[in-house]
Amino acid sequence: MVYVDTSALLKRYITEVDSNEFDAFFMARTPLAISRLTLVEMRCALARRRRNGEITATLETQAMDEVRIDIQDGALDVHPINDDQVVHALRLIDHVSPLPLRTLDALHLSSAQRFLANEFATADRNQAAAANALGFNVFTFFHIKS
């Protein structure tokens, strides 16, 4: 099972660098696992981009509608998040130190482990490094700067 972080999933719903690559990955690998946390983070990311003038309110609404459609169609498998995953995330931070793992990234990685995902997709370099350290087969959607 592939768990998809919000940073990668967002590329399906708004045009970004590597959106085409992620969309091809999405179409080839569905269903993909996400947590309820992903939905909250997705909503926040879209609202932030609207407030910053990067997307319109119409695109913001359309993107969330498309997320809902992907869930209804079974392309995204939404898993609950619980207190056990929060406690597990605390341990992950120690396990992958000295990598700079952020709060939500640790929660996503914890969720992926608890859902028994063996693959992890992200557009975040630090999270990719942590996922790799945790033994996931990692798919990345960012360009390496040379």
Topology:
Elements: E1 2-4, H1 6-13, H2 19-29, E2 32-35, H3 36-51, H4 57-72, E3 76-79, H5 83-95, H6 103-114, E4 119-122, H7 125-133, E5 137-140
Parallel strand pairs: 1-4, 2-3, 4-5
Task: Give an overview of the whole structure.
- By secondary structure, this protein is α/β, with parallel strands linked by helices.
- It has a single domain (2-140), classed as 5'-nuclease (Rossmann fold).
- Helices cover 58% and strands 13% of the residues.
- The protein has helices spanning 6-13, 19-29, 36-51, 57-72, 83-95, 103-114, 125-133; strands at residues 2-4, 32-35, 76-79, 119-122, 137-140.
- The chain has a three-stranded parallel β-sheet with strand order 1-4-5. The chain has a two-stranded parallel sheet with strand order 2-3.
- The chain starts with a strand and ends in a 6-residue tail after the last strand.
- The mean pLDDT is 93.
Give me the number of helical elements: 7
CATH superfamily: 5'-nuclease
Mean pLDDT: 93
Query: In the CATH scheme, what's the topology name?
Result: Rossmann fold
**CATH architecture classification:** 3-Layer(aba) Sandwich
Oligomer: single chain
How would you sum up the global shape? Answer: globular
Return the string of H and E elements: EHHEHHEHHEHE
Provide the low-confidence segments as ranges: none
Secondary structure category:
alpha/beta
Distance between the termini: 32 Å
Tell me the domain tally. 1
CATH class: Alpha Beta
- Main sheet: strands, sense, barrel: 3 strands, parallel
Strand content: 5-15%
How many DSSP E strands?
Answer: 5
Spatial order of the strands forming the largest sheet: 1-4-5
User: Nearest-angstrom radius of gyration?
Assistant: 15 Å
**Fraction of helical residues:** 55-70%
